[in-house]
Design goal:
The protein contains 13 helices and no strands. By secondary structure, it is mainly alpha-helical. The chain has 2 domains: 77 residues, no CATH class; 103 residues, no CATH class. The longest helix has 18 residues.
Length: 252
């Protein structure tokens, strides 16, 4: 259900100028019933000037009269043909002036680490235009040599939940299309929540890299570990008599 503009100020006006009950006003303005009661008691919205919904073409006098006669009647917002479709209109996200210089870095990060995202999704996430995204994708941006990829969440350009939702949507679309994905692409399509919930994979120490396929022989027995070796058998040292024979041969 659509709500009136300046809902709290509208509730102040309805409390002061009508005999509608708190629930009727709360339902119409999208507030809690206790909040409307607080307005009536002066504890909430102190100093807020009432906003007349009748004069501003949001409510009719007939609708107010019907609500005053029947406590169960729900007020309906007046139909305004000029406002049709306004709630569906979407444009680029507004970005504060102090953060607009960071948008190219966030676009490069999204293009690099989430190439599955469409330009329209990136535009909504960081509040930019498609020509800018295309220029960074094709590396034709005038400042591309000085742009470093930075996470848009870290820059405060979007929320982590919004980024995760966009990634999941792109993942579902790619799965429907049946496109083949590499392992790296599958990892990128995971949301942060899913990634943190996964078990960590065992890693091979760098000291034994290259021995991943090494296996022990079939004749290996665990009890051989306990077998003790003396120095002579371990190093296969020659006997002293052999040394004497070699010395005699050399003297001849």
């Amino acid at each position: 259900m659509s709500k009136p503009i300046m809902a709290k100020a509208t509730a102040v006006w309805l409390v002061d100028n009508t005999t509608l009950n708190f629930k009727q006003i709360a339902d119409f303005c999208g507030l809690h019933e206790l909040e409307v009661q607080g307005i009536a008691d002066g504890d909430v919205a102190a100093g807020v000037k009432g906003f007349d919904p009748v004069a501003n073409n949001q409510l009719t006098e007939e609708e107010i009269e019907a609500g005053q006669k029947n406590p169960l009647h729900k007020l309906k917002l007046k139909f305004n043909a000029a406002a049709q479709g306004e709630e569906k209109r979407r444009g680029p996200r507004y970005t504060p002036l102090s953060k607009r210089q960071d948008r190219p870095a966030s676009i490069l990060w999204l293009v690099k680490f989430h190439p599955e995202l469409a330009d329209s999704q990136i535009s909504r996430l960081v509040g930019t235009t498609k020509p800018t995204i295309q220029a960074i994708r094709e590396r034709t941006h005038w400042n591309i040599a000085n742009i470093q990829p930075i996470d848009p969440v870290a820059l405060g350009l979007c929320k982590q939940s919004e980024l995760d939702a966009a990634v999941q949507k792109a993942s579902a679309k790619k799965a429907r299309e049946g496109a083949a994905m590499s392992d790296d692409e599958r990892r990128k399509l995971l949301s942060t929540e899913q990634s943190l919930g996964m078990e960590s994979e065992p890693k091979i120490p760098t000291a034994i890299e290259g021995l991943e396929s090494f296996t022990l022989g079939q004749d290996y027995q665990p009890e051989e570990r306990e077998k003790k070796y003396d120095a002579e058998s371990l190093f296969n040292l020659p006997d002293a008599s052999d040394d004497d024979d070699e010395d005699e041969d050399e003297s001849r």
